[in-house]
Structure formats: C-alpha cells, structure tokens
Amino acid sequence: MKATVQPPIVYKSISELMRELGMPKPVHPLVALVSYNLKTVSSKNAGRNILIDFYKVAFRRNFKGQVKYGQNYYDFEEGGLAFLAPNQLVTVPAEGSSYDGYTLYFHPDLIRNYPLGKRMRQYGFFSYAVNEALFLSDKEKQVVAGLFESIAAELNNNIDSFSQDILVSQIELLLNYSNRFYNRQFLTRKNVHNDLITKMDDYLAERFDNDAAGRSGVPTVLELADYLRVSPRYLTDMLKSLTGQSAQQHIHDRLIEKAKAILSTSTLSIAEVAYQLGFEHPPSFNKLFKRSTNMSPKAFRQSFN
User: Which residues form the HTH araC/xylS-type domain (predicted)?
Assistant: First the structure.
C-alpha cells in the first residue's frame, strides 16, 4: 500500500506562520524578522511541504543540517543567502537543524504601491533553487548582517507614518546588494559555470546532430535547465553575466550555427531544414534566421553558389 501523500501546509499571513514557529506576533502585519543564534530549530511539521504567500530571505552565517528543495537536499554549512518568492514549495527542515542568522518575511502588499513592487522581477534570485543560494565572503556577510540589523532596529521602533517607507527602502537595499554579490559569484565561480556552458553546448550539438530536434521541437530553456539541473532563471542570469546573452539567445545562436552548416552542405529545401531543426512552421525559422544574420536562408545558401 502506498503511503498517503500529505498536502502542503499553506500560510497566507505572516502572523499565522509566526504562531506556528512559536514566535511573538509581528509588530508589523506585513513584515517580520526572525533572529536565530545557534539554537536548535525544531518543528512538529519537520519534513512537511509548505507554501507561503509572501517573500522569504534567509541569511545564515552558519548552518548545520540540510534543506530540501524539490527532490534535492542542499548542505548550507558555510552559510549565505537564500530567497523564496510567494507560493514556492519548500520542505520544513528536519529536527536538529541549527541556524545562526536571520530570516526576513515580507508580504507583497508591503511593497505593492512602491517602485520596488514593480521591479521585483529584476531580482531573479527569487526564482532560483535553494542549491543556487548566494555564498558570501566574510566581508559580504558583515555587510548583509548590518542590513538585517538595521531592519531589526526599525521594526523595534514604534510604527509611525515613515515606518513603511523606511522598511521598504531597507529591503530594496538588501536586494540590490544581493544582486551585486550574485554577479560576483558568477564571476568568481567562472570555471564551474564554463563547464556548465560546455555541457549545455554539447547537449545542443547532440540534439541537432541526431535529428532529435526534428522529433522533439526546438530546444527550450526549461529543457536545458532540467538537463543541467539548475533553475531556468539561474541559467539565464549566469549566461547574461558571463556571455551577455540570455539562455534563449544562446539556444538561438547554436541553432543558427547548425542551420548555416546544413544550408551550406546539403540540398535540403528551406522547409526541410526548418523541420529538421524542430520548427513546426518554416516561416518561423525564416524569421529567426533573417533576424540573426540579416539575410534569408535562401540568400545565405545562394551566397555559397
């Protein structure tokens, strides 16, 4: 008999989550900061999947234990920053995990009427998987710790007409520093990421060379990310940092390279080339080729004659 799969626990409000964690009611209903100081964190729901309807930023100076994200476990011993957007599925850490740091929760309503609310999409790390967390240098940890301490100090003040403006500006500063530090991480781990790019190019070459594209369609960013075991947004941000191209642009470049090879060495019709590369409609191939090379596939082929 199969074990019954329990549905995820859904938390719609920060106050509800604080009650579950045994924490005091948040001073501000739309934002809360939890401080951990190397104490063991336990929960009656350890191992259960949860969904929260707000943002989460976790800062760990040190961490003993494992975090589960999807089917993978992530060892976060060195600490750093991890981010969750609303309605992402995570698993409550197992009993015995110990933290040293902070966890910030803030509801989308806190920033909805601010410019930050419209710019949240630019902080792509909220779509990264936990195993793509931000590893911080000791100097960066000091900067981040200072930002969290400033947020804590503001939350300990009496709420007035300036409170929300200040909190939102502090959160935005934290996110901007996180963007900076992620860009540094892409560069300092360049060798690891170059290996990832090589693996991706090998996969694309195999897809195009064995006619798999014709059967499966044009490769997608999601397909590549699944193969490389990274999140689609992390793949795009990593490529943007190292090559200046998005993952979609990278796929198109490799596709055009293969198209040029076929057009210059075969007698296949333009439509047959399009189908072989995975396009359902040849005009879509023609449009992409012309946008990438400033000439049509037919004109490109004729240039070799």
Answer: 198-303
pLDDT in tens, 195-247: 788 888 888 888 887 766 567 788 999 999 999 888 888 888 888 888 888 89
State the Cα–Cα distance between residues 143 and 91, nearest whole angstrom: 28
The β-bridge partners of 73 are 68
283 touches 296 (CB < 8 A): no
> Is-contact 278 219, C-beta < 8 A?
yes
Element spanning 224, H or E: helix 221-228
| 19 found inside a domain | yes
Evaluate whether 41 touches 138 at the Cβ level (below 8 Å).
Answer: no
Position 10 scores a pLDDT of 85
Domain total for the chain?
2
Give the position of tokens 């100097």: 139
Domain that holds residue 264: 191-302
Same domain for 237 and 160: no
Tokens of 245: 């191209």
- Integer distance in angstroms from the first to the last C-alpha of the chain? 68
Q: Which of 121, 154, 184 is the last residue of a domain?
A: 184
C-alpha to C-alpha distance for 31 and 84, rounded to whole angstroms = 14
Chain centroid to Cα 139, Å, comes to 24
Contact (CB, 8 A) for 188 and 182 = no
Closest by Cα among 9, 72, 28, 269 to 163: 28
Report pLDDT digits (tens) over 31-78.
Answer: 999 887 644 444 566 667 778 889 999 898 765 555 544 444 444 455
Do 221 and 166 share a structural domain?
no
What SS3 class is residue 67? strand
Residue 2 lies in a domain: no
